Amino acid sequence: MQAKQYVEKVYEDLLKRNEGQVEFHQAAKEVFNSLISVFEKHPEYVENGILERIVEPERQLMFRVPWTDDKGNVQVNRGFRVQFNSAIGPYKGGLRFHPSVNLSIIKFLGFEQIFKNSLTGLPIGGGKGGSDFDPKGKSDREIMRFCQSFMTELSKYIGQDMDVPAGDIGVGGREIGYMYGQYKRLKTSYEGVLTGKGLTYGGSLVRTEATGYGLVYFVDEMLKGKGKNFEGKTVVVSGAGNVAIYAIEKVHQLGGKVITCSDSNGYIYDENGINLDTLKKIKEVERKRLTEYVKYHPQAKYTEGKGVWSIPCDIALPCATQNEINEEDAKTLVKNGVIAVGEGANMPSTLEAIDVFLNNKVLFGPAKAANAGGVAVSALEMSQNSMRYSWTFEEVDAKLKNIMKNIYENSVKAAKKYGFEDNYVVGANIAGFIKVAEAMMAQGIV
Ligand code: NDP
């Protein structure tokens, strides 16, 4: 069978076996489209069913998470952990707490994670988890009780050498702390079972900043490849969470100006550049909505709803959530002269939007390459925990920068080798895939 037909057949089977899981279909399709040329060169991957095996998670867990709210009412949420692929290391990937979470979303994130983790060059497999729990408006004690109940079940299936979760949307330092405490209590073991931990109990310096900083390091490499840089560039960012905040910080350090940020209700436009002290105070300390920003900076404008992509910019960094840039948004960005797009969020651009960017020669950094800095520093946190040692901020930051540079170079190299020059989507997919495929080949049909 021709490589193209083979890939189409596996995709058709995937659609049948995973009915209705539209986000998972989308993530798989993006990777599949990139791999046809790989299967042409490597028939042994076809013979060994690498693609059929890689799209089937090794293990999928769904469980009840009961907890009591502050009024004494019983609440029930659903917990997930998808252990997708452990060919190159223990499962690794974040936990997302958001009401939209379902099996399709966790599977798309887990699938992406396999290739992202491979691209980092570090020994980590792919997994993802979370819950449809909504942390918004919950008291600190409610968050704690939820996290304890969630971990009570999850603890049976994870471990420092088996599966090491981290944070994602709705899961930051506070949630990781509560889950770590419960794990330790249940297992009586002080081990690096989670990453993103606080600095007083085994966390790594730079983990908080890693995804946002790494994203900007990656985009900087893309710009440098074309003789450009961030100096004097106008940048539009979506989101106002962990990834967005530290992407903004690094852009400002490199001489660019970020003029927007957003949450799920609306966005801020500040022509003076987003004030980071204010943003951190509102989001990290007070945990309030973005409407607060204009109270401190009356010259800024708050607009309800979406629309951040209609603001003219040189560089766009989507850092909120999946499918936040559609075809129309992409066309608007191109019309307004965008030169580079770096995906901080996972799968923020639809497949149609990606085509618009690539067809218009926009430098496009796909999520699995551009936002891999978070999981890379998580893996460095695992190393430090194993050594019972901590590196300095400068040491970890230098390692992060180097990892992002390698990811860029490996993506460029793979794209060129297979005839897709300047297409970092194909390059990242191929570079990430080949390492995992080789490990799977070596380990037999398991
Ligand atoms: P946070 O929870 O810290 O922040 C998420 C931000 O995105 C918030 O501003 C949130 O607004 C907004 N947002 C979330 N969902 C939606 C939605 N449906 N529509 C519009 N806005 C939304 O999460 P992170 O910053 O950690 O994660 C952001 C993205 O980056 C996700 O795609 C995540 O998977 C990805 N990522 C994160 C990594 C990490 O290390 N944290 C690593 C790699 C990728 P609101 O407060 O209103 O919900």
Structure write-up:
With 446 residues, the chain is an alpha/beta fold. It has three domains: 3-54, no CATH class; 59-191, Rossmann fold; 210-370, 3-Layer(aba) Sandwich (Rossmann fold), CATH 3.40.50. Helix content is 49%, strand content 15%. It contains 17 helices and twelve strands. The chain has a seven-stranded mixed beta sheet with strand order 9-8-7-6-10-11-12, with helices on both faces. A five-stranded mixed beta sheet has the order 1-2-4-3-5, sandwiched between helices. Helix 12 links the parallel strand 10 (315-318) and strand 11. Helix 1 (3-17) runs antiparallel to helix 2 and helix 5 (103-119) crosses helix 17 (424-442). The site of NADPH dihydro-nicotinamide-adenine-dinucleotide phosphate has 22 residues, from helix 9.
